[in-house]
Design a protein that fits this description.
61% of the residues lie in helices and 14% in strands. By secondary structure, it is of the alpha+beta class. It has one domain. The radius of gyration is 25 Å and the shape is extended.
Length: 195
């Protein structure tokens, strides 16, 4: 029994499931706290002319894309399908994924579940509360921690893909250096007096 618990805890730790759970809990708790202490439209300045908290609900996606009842349903379905797809990929490729890939997947899962829960259980849509001024007084769309998990996960994934591709190409060049013994063209043969 104790051996099974230990192996389960090792799997929990090595799979980075703890990271996904931690990020999801931070997202859910932060939304509950904001809903309890901040009124809709109220602004609490954290860093003047840069960062503030406010409470809004968004049925749509970023920049209120698909902000309607029908869009809300479509995005709810997309959220849960994305969750199933990401989780399925993680399960199938678990043994082949490294620690960074596991961390990326957990970020994506936490963000997908966090927004999926909002879309499923809140009629008004996703709870957003983090506001940023890009260049004061211009505001970036309000977002939440689940959105941060998704964006950071995707950025790290893209950097990982590009750096891996660069490493693979460099290795191929080292293993197969370009040959200097290329075939001479007709004009090069004439210039060298070979014809």
């Amino acid at each position: 029994m104790i051996t099974k618990i230990k192996s389960g805890l090792k799997l929990f730790y090595r799979s980075y499931a703890w990271l996904g759970l931690l990020l999801l809990l931070l997202d859910l708790v932060s939304k509950l706290v904001i809903q309890h202490y901040v009124a809709i439209g109220q602004e609490i300045t954290l860093i003047p002319k840069f960062l503030y908290l406010t409470l809004t609900y968004n049925k749509g996606a970023a920049w209120s894309i698909l902000d309607s009842d029908a869009g809300h349903i479509v995005l709810t379905v997309i959220s849960w399908l994305a969750f199933v797809g990401i989780l399925g990929y993680f399960i199938v490729s678990y043994k082949k994924t490294n620690l960074l890939q596991k961390a990326i997947i957990m970020c994506l899962l936490a963000g997908t579940i966090g927004n999926g829960i909002d879309r499923t259980f809140y009629e008004d849509g996703v709870i957003d509360f983090i506001g940023v001024y890009l260049f004061y007084p211009n505001r970036f769309p309000i977002f939440n921690l689940a959105d941060c998990c998704l964006v950071v996960g995707i950025i790290i994934l893209l950097v990982y893909i590009f750096t891996t591709e660069i490493r693979i190409r460099r290795r191929k060049r080292k293993l197969n250096p370009p040959s200097n013994d290329r075939v001479k063209s007709q004009s090069e043969k004439e210039d060298d007096g070979e014809l």
